[in-house]
């Protein structure tokens, strides 16, 4: 790691530095944070030196410099989902910046949500002496994103009951919460209230959120009807949203129609195989070799790809997964082999499901983490439906909580249940 540290100090090109950061992150979150801290200190030193050189010593604000350092570290902790390091940074901020400003409290709140720790985030929210609009935005958006849409709607109701006026951005968070609840009726009531009670003119972003809300629970024809009645020309984002929902729910015909419109409006949004057909695009997505998972265990980050199941060093992981599969079947699990696209027999398809990277990460976490501790996995694509079911079964069998961050949201899985309630 010392070599990487030294290289980072001398390299100036952004792409190369980003690559080195990725390499460093794989070696351990703590090392990553050390380098970021060093960079921030160099920036602060340059600011101080510049003020002294120009005879502007009176402009040096020590509290401001400490705040810059803390805010940058909070950003890194949130990005890397590093909860223990996030708590250290928070304590440092409380020690050196007390009392915290509303904007700093908001950043702490967001950091904890990004790390998947609702308890810490809610504790911060309750302890804040005052809130601003960003505070409410963060609570509404992040509670829904973390699988607590009912609480998100409750916060929105609390906000309105205080006589405060929501803005357009806040309603996007509300529509997201209704989407997670699978409650189209409530979402449409909020949409009507937005313009009727608060005079907010719907933007394209609102329509995108509403289309996602309707289509995410499989009401694809209703979503299309809603789009056709829009008072403005639908953007490429609207059609792309419906296209993606068609992919999830298996409506290839409507999905292809949407793909044609996306192709017409912005060809760059479709890969080459997706241009030839929605199903091919799905196959391409399933087979991408760059898809990976990150598992954090005691501040160490482990990376998994689907093909890693065939690595001899992972035989213990695969053995554990096979043992769990037996128990899962006894508990009622039925493998959804429709997620396996290879032309092989049923047994082979069930074995192929064991090789999915999210399961490898979960099994590695069971091997390496402390007993009863929460296991966190970051995935860079949408959860496979069978893996989603499997991890719920595993959570009940082993008595563990799993926090899985996929391309769309957090899934808090505990005792056989998931915070997404089946909508994701």
TrEMBL record:
PPR repeat residue numbers: 132-166
Presence of keyword ATP-binding: no
Xref: Pfam families: DYW_deaminase, PPR
Single GO molecular function: RNA binding
PROSITE patterns: PPR
Every DYW domain range: 332-424
UniProt keyword terms in alphabetical order: Repeat
Classification via InterPro entries: DYW_dom, PPR_At4g14850-like_plant, PPR_rpt, TPR-like_helical_dom_sf
Entry keyword annotation includes Repeat: yes
GO biological process: RNA modification
Entries under PANTHER family matching the protein: DYW DOMAIN-CONTAINING PROTEIN, PENTATRICOPEPTIDE REPEAT-CONTAINING PROTEIN
Recorded family membership: Belongs to the PPR family. PCMP-H subfamily.
NCBIfam families named in the record: PPR
Protein name: PPR containing plant-like protein
Species this chain originates from: Medicago truncatula
């Amino acid at each position: 790691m010392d070599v990487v540290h030294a290289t980072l100090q001398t390299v100036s090109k952004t792409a190369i530095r980003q690559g080195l950061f990725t390499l460093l992150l794989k070696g351990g979150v703590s090392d990553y944070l050390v380098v970021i801290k060093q960079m921030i200190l160099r920036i602060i030193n340059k600011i101080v030196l510049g003020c002294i050189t120009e005879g502007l010593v009176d402009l040096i604000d020590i509290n401001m410099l400490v705040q810059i350092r803390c805010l940058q570290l909070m950003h890194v902790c949130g990005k890397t989902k590093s909860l223990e390091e996030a708590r250290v940074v928070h304590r440092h901020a409380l020690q050196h910046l007390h009392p915290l400003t509303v904007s700093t409290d908001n950043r702490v709140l967001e950091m904890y949500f990004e790390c998947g720790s609702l308890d810490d985030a809610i504790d911060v929210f309750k302890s804040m002496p005052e809130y601003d609009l960003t505070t409410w935005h963060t609570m509404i958006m992040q509670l829904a994103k973390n699988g607590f849409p009912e609480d998100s709607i409750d916060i929105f109701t609390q906000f309105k009951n205080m006589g405060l006026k929501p803005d357009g951005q806040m309603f996007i968070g509300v529509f997201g919460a209704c989407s997670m609840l699978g409650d189209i009726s409530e979402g449409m009531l909020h949409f009507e209230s937005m313009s009727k009670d608060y005079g907010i003119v719907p933007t394209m972003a609102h329509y995108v959120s509403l289309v996602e809300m309707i289509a995410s629970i499989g009401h694809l024809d209703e979503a299309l009807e809603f789009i056709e009645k829009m008072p403005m020309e639908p953007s490429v984002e609207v059609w792309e949203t419906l296209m993606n929902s068609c992919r999830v729910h298996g409506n290839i015909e409507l999905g292809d129609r949407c793909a044609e419109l996306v192709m017409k409006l912005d060809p760059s949004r479709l890969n080459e195989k997706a241009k030839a057909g929605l199903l091919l695009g799905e196959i391409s997505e399933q087979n991408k070799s760059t898809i990976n998972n990150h598992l954090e265990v005691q501040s160490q980050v482990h990376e998994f790809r689907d093909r890693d199941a065939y690595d001899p060093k992972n035989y213990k992981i695969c053995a554990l997964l096979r043992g769990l599969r037996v128990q899962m079947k006894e508990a009622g699990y039925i493998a959804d082999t429709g997620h396996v696209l290879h032309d092989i027999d049923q047994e082979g398809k069930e074995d192929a499901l064991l090789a999915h990277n999210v399961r490898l990460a979960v099994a590695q976490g069971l091997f390496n983490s402390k007993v009863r501790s929460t296991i966190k996995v970051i995935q860079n694509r949408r959860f496979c439906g069978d893996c989603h079911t499997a991890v719920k079964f595993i959570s009940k069998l082993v008595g563990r909580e799993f926090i899985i961050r996929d391309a769309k949201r957090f899934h808090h899985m505990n005792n056989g249940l998931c915070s997404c309630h089946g909508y994701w």
